[in-house]
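Late entry, KG4 complex.
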Amino acid sequence: MILAIETSCDDTGIAVIKASSKGPIFNVLSNIVSSQAEVHKKWGGVYPMLAKREHQRNLVPVLTQALEQAKLLKISKSKFLISKQIQNPKSKMLESILEREPELLKKLLLFLKKYQKPDIDAIAITTGPGLEPCLWVGVNFAKALSYTWNIPVVAVNHVEAHILINFLPKINEIFNYQFLISNQFSNSNFQKLMPAVCLVVSGGHTQVILMENFGKYKILGETRDDAAGECFDKVAKILGLGYPGGPIVAAKVAQFSISNFQFPIKLPRPMINTKDYDFSFSGLKTAVLYNYKSQPEKIRRNKKYILEICAETQQAIIDVLLKKTIKAAKDYKAKTIILGGGVAANDELRKQFIKNCKLRIENCNLLIPNKDLCTDNALMVAVAGYFRFKQGKTENWRDIEAEANLRLE
Ligand code: KG4
Ligand code: ZN
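Prediction complete; structure with ligand written out below:
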């Protein structure tokens, strides 16, 4: 049984999975995500200190909900005993672990007085990459739970978690995907999917990664400036559409028929023809800004113009992501293309990847997570944590640290 915690950006997530050693067969007992989108909306982006405050507020309620849904939440039989136990010297240690999160400490102490230790074997926690203050709240929370419950911690890389969620059988969309058709997962059918080329596209990351095995990765290319999701978010902000920009832009484009172009907007596809697997999206955002600023007020207010510039932005992003990923898959003779991250929830991107994988590469599997598992969640951390746990990669809570720039290599 694994409890996973995710706080690397603006979503507070906690999930519980039960995994049996034969298979492995995963049983998802709960997967709770508390989004802070409403809080960050008025700023048009995520403010790390504000996000940290929200994680402090949300973690204990989300933990309670996740354990309750997993049927692991049990009221303490002897309140007196537990409360005594939580006082010296345990509470002194908890005070020191959560020294920088006083609000979280207060809530956690109340929780620990009220509930028994749940039947959990390990705590999986995202240690990076991500926003440093946000990562630390989750890491300190995991340390506090690990210390109190006396169970080990498994450190999870957020980007790896976006990839490995694809290996949670049954809940993924599977295209031309011949090998993992049951929820019996074995090393032999896994090997038939390797090597894989992974595209992780989110608000914080845009990377093309070669995966040769679990835990064996090489970053082939990445963005040199903004991430693809960040580009969606910034373009939406320029156009005054709100936050997060990706789903808003996608919803606008869905209202629009391509045969109906009225404004001749042509945006750049930065680095589309370079020989590497790198990206650059900041120039695309600037091109949108210039186009928008150069328009008279009447056009800027024109709904049709907004729809068209959204459609062209989205297509420019998809064109570049598609071209570089397919190039990498061909160059490395990949047997599978794996998508992950918030931008992979984009309907048009999903459609165009399915179509192009069929047309442009032979015998290549394509794995795309369910839409709600593309954006940040703790289930992906649980899955990645499970694989590390099986390899014996557990740690003592004292040795775990957040690392904002953690790399997958
Ligand atoms: O993976 P994620 O939840 O967080 C990070 O690790 O960054 O990704 C969030 C990003 C945001 O930039 C958001 O605008 C984008 O994913 N996103 C989308 C869609 N849904 C979320 N971008 C395009 N189309 C979508 N449907
Ligand atoms: Zn993410």
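Residues 173-368 form a domain with the Nucleotidyltransferase; domain 5 fold (CATH 3.30.420.40). Will revisit in the morning.
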